[in-house]
């Protein structure tokens, strides 16, 4: 519904010509206001009905493709011969006309919406899916007495078809982490007690999605907008001094910055994997499509032990003869995993549960892997690991090299490489996973920053199969992490260790500077503060999106995708505005 407000004002005139000129000005203003109202109503149609109906129109094509044996990296999901049919359906099922009559016979307006130029982005083809675009044109005409004004605006609707890799969101959570208390109803509105929210200081430079249970306060920033699968969110209401249950974009004192995209309530939830067995099997050189629990037999066979053994604690690089056949497999807990760069080599320094240190140097140029265990002699294998490191236990410390001095104050979002040495070499594509917790105890950065080098190849994944990914108590202030983080088991996520221990002396630690993505089952506590002020304890979120991740452009090895093949329509982007 569009509300047209006519402003009454007093005119002081001294001649008939002035009165006629003033009336003409008023008539043109009313005609323009009516034309703008029609365009606004049609734009609202595109944002709401258009997005929903686009999903419905394209879903049959997606379902048909998913049932086939075709590969989305090479075959189009929507055949080009069907483009005209897609446009005809969109223009048929979406309300494409509108009419408005102003009160007191002050004028009328009409509007028309047309979808056109449905097309595919050929550069978006990947195993996960494809991106399509459709343009829209909005025409509004306002009439007041003899005066007529026309407004035309156009824009584009982006549609992603296929599976979505879980690193395509800067933040993805099943549960937003709000701890709801008692709720009451007042004047038809519901207010709740509770805590656990995203507030002032939280910045997200990429797509953000929550399935449910999200609370917002203050002015968090979602530069690519926010999607929520639940019909409502919780927003702090200063007048009520409680959390309002609402589908609105803002409240009296909660005013998120949505980057012009808004908060959208969608229907589809995004499911997360509950374990990392697939990644464990990949590290052994097995079939990652098999998602059942690892067996002693397959661990023993892949690591060169007897088939009926109890796997021995240690670090293994599965091989056949002198050739690498898998990734890096750690049986039992890893006390420490340090990633570093030596020349062009990727270096792994791993301390296993027995206290034995294994150093693995991967030379991608020479295609060799050198392994030195404890005080033993180095051995050289042909080939390099497949990019999957897996601990069949927890990783008690994951870190890069120690810092070489102090950061600037305040700490920049992009690390100073002279202070924060890289952990991931320029050619390294690595996924670090474990069956239990992973504790980040130091910076984890790339040799080549993708925000400064869009063609950078280095990438890191961090997956806790059934535990938390923790920012450890030994981590530095303003910790830097570059990569895709995933903790999908029920109730798990990215948590600051010890933040919920009231007895711990835990002051403000700066920010978690994440360049990449975070997918978690339940958003965890990372900082403590008031709903109207800054944090006093723990870390703020400074999450920046690695633009290479969009549409599956770059993905860490063996990083999972959504199980559902579907359609995602994004809020339309206006391109032009013309008035006549």
Explain this structure to me?
With 580 residues, this protein is mainly beta. The chain has a 15-stranded mixed β-sheet that branches. A nine-stranded mixed β-sheet has the order 24-23-22-21-20-26-28-30-32, with no helix packed on it. The two termini are 24 Å apart.
Set out the fold topology.
Blueprint: H1 16-67, H2 83-93, E1 97-101, E2 108-120, E3 129-144, E4 147-162, E5 171-175, E6 179-186, E7 189-195, E8 203-205, E9 208-212, E10 215-216, E11 221-222, E12 226-228, E13 233-237, E14 242-246, E15 263-265, H3 277-283, H4 296-302, E16 314-316, E17 319-320, E18 323-324, E19 328-331, E20 334-342, E21 345-352, E22 357-363, E23 368-373, E24 379-382, E25 388-392, E26 395-399, E27 429-434, E28 438-440, E29 459-464, E30 469-471, E31 480-487, E32 494-496, E33 508-522, E34 527-529, E35 535-545, E36 566-569, E37 573-579
Parallel strand pairs: 5-9, 5-33, 8-11, 8-35, 9-12, 10-13, 12-15, 19-25, 20-26, 25-27, 26-28, 27-29, 28-30, 29-31, 30-32, 31-33, 33-35
Antiparallel strand pairs: 1-2, 2-3, 3-4, 4-36, 4-37, 6-7, 7-14, 13-14, 16-19, 17-18, 20-21, 21-22, 22-23, 23-24, 34-35
What descriptive keywords fit this protein?
single chain; 580 residues; mainly beta; nine-stranded mixed beta sheet; 4 helices; 13% helix; globular; disordered N terminus
Quick rundown:
This protein is mainly β. The protein contains four helices and 37 strands. Helix 1 (16-67) packs across helix 2.
């Amino acid at each position: 519904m569009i509300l047209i407000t006519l402003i009454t004002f007093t005119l002081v005139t001294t001649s008939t010509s002035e009165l006629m000129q003033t009336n003409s000005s008023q008539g043109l203003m009313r005609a323009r206001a009516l034309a703008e109202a029609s365009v606004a109503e049609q734009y609202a149609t595109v944002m709401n009905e258009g997005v929903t109906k686009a999903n419905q129109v394209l879903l049959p094509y997606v379902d048909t493709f998913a049932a086939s044996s075709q590969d989305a990296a090479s075959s189009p999901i929507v055949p080009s011969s069907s483009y005209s049919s897609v446009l005809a359906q969109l223009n048929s099922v979406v309300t494409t006309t509108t009419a408005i009559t102003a009160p007191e016979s002050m004028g009328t307006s009409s509007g028309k919406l047309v979808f056109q130029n449905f097309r595919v982005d050929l550069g978006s083809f990947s195993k996960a899916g494809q991106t399509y675009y459709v343009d829209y044109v909005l025409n509004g005409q306002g009439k007041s007495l003899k005066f007529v004004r026309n407004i035309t605006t156009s824009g584009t609707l982006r549609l992603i078809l296929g599976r979505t890799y879980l690193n395509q969101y800067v933040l993805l959570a099943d549960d937003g982490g709000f701890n709801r208390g008692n709720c009451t109803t007042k004047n038809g509105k519901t207010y709740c007690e509770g805590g656990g929210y995203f507030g002032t200081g939280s910045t997200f430079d990429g797509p953000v999605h929550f399935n449910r249970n999200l609370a917002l306060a203050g002015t968090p920033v979602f530069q690519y907008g926010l999607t929520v699968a639940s019909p409502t969110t919780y927003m702090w209401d200063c007048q009520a001094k409680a959390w309002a249950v609402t589908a609105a974009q803002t409240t009296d004192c909660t005013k998120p910055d949505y980057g012009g995209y808004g908060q959208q309530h969608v229907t589809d939830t995004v499911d997360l994997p509950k374990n990392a067995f697939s990644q464990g099997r990949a590290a052994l050189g097995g079939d990652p499509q098999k998602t059942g629990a690892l067996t002693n037999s397959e661990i023993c066979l892949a690591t060169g032990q007897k088939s009926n053994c109890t796997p021995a604690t240690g670090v293994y690089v599965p091989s056949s003869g002198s050739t690498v056949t898998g990734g890096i497999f750690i049986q039992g807990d890893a006390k420490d995993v340090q990633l570093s760069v030596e020349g062009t080599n990727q270096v792994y320094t791993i301390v296993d549960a027995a206290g034995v240190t294994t150093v693995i140097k991967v030379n991608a140029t020479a295609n060799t892997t050198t392994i030195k265990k404890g005080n033993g002699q180095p051995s050289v294998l042909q080939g390099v690991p497949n990019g999957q490191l897996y601990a069949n236990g927890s990783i008690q410390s994951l870190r890069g090299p120690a810092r070489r001095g102090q950061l600037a104050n305040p700490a920049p979002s992009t690390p100073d490489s002279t202070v924060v040495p890289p952990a991931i070499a320029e050619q390294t594509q690595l996924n670090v996973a474990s069956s239990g917790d992973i504790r980040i105890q130091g910076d984890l950065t790339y040799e080549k920053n993708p925000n400064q080098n869009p063609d950078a190849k280095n990438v890191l994944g961090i997956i806790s199969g059934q535990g938390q990914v923790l920012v450890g108590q030994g981590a530095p202030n303003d910790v830097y992490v570059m990569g895709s983080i995933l903790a999908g088991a029920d109730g798990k996520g990215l948590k600051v260790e010890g933040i919920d221990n009231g007895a711990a002396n835990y002051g403000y630690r700066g920010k978690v500077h994440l360049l990449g993505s975070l997918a978690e089952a339940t958003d965890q506590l990372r900082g403590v503060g008031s709903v109207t002020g800054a944090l006093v304890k723990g870390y703020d979120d400074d999450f920046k999106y690695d633009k290479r991740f969009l549409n599956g452009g770059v993905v860490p090895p063996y990083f999972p995708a959504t199980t559902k093949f579907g359609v995602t329509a994004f809020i339309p982007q206006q391109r032009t505005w013309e008035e006549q």
